[in-house]
Design a protein that fits this description.
CATH topology of the domain at 12-114 and 124-145: GIY-YIG endonuclease
Number of strands: 6
Largest sheet: 3 strands, antiparallel
CATH superfamily of the domain at 12-114 and 124-145: GIY-YIG endonuclease
CATH class of the domain at 12-114 and 124-145: Alpha Beta
Distance between the termini: 74 Å
CATH architecture of the domain at 12-114 and 124-145: 3-Layer(aba) Sandwich
Low-confidence stretches: 1-6
Amino acid sequence: MTGSAATYEFDAETQTRLPARGGVSCIYTIRQVGTDRLYVGSARDHLRRWYAHRRALTLGNHRNRILQRIWNKFGPAGIVFSIVEFVEASKLLEREQAWIDSLQPQLNLYPIAGRGPAGTSLTPEHRAKIGAAQRGRKRNPEEVEKAAAANRGKKRSPEVVAQMAEARRGKKASQAHRENISKALLGKPKSPEAVAKTAAAHRGAKRSDAARLKMSKRYILTSPTGEEVVVINLAQFCRENSLSRSNLLTVITGKRSHSKGWIARKECI
């Protein structure tokens, strides 16, 4: 049935499967009237769930801000509740995710079955089901951007930061992951706060000999007699051999062919 208060919409087959009394375990949708915008959800009792939705919307405190805006603007007649599949209670999460993947509902705040707003606690079993449903699933670019926009500008609490650090401790990122991070950060200017934080973290830290060697510029110099020398401290080498550092640098950059018979180039590591 449909109406300004109830706003149900069931086809004939669904009507025949509904019990005379009580609710059913199912996957349902809430559709904005006159559009194809949907919300997909699951319920062990569709009547209780629909009542909970309507009560929260009426009180103006529904946790889905998009549904709340539609209700505020159009009232009860602006949305329609429908059952799309009858499901066993044990398979609700799995089937809800399948419908979310299939319909790509625009009114769901999160594209993950069972995912709620911040502060919602899930049981270990529920988390395991979400993980199983998401394993191997690739998100489309629109979904990624939507999730990024929802989190952009949010600051994590110290507790959350500590939990994330603990979870990552000891884990090494793959080479592909490192390359993706480098590409994402390439050309991005760091904020003054980020620069100051990095400087403070490194201030007073002593680098190992291996780290110093890795960071040092290394040059290969060829003497007038053809002998090759690997040089790390170019200034010191020039002092000890009566050479001009500036002249050797022009040789390295290709502006001169040699300096006092010496040829120089940077070592490619």
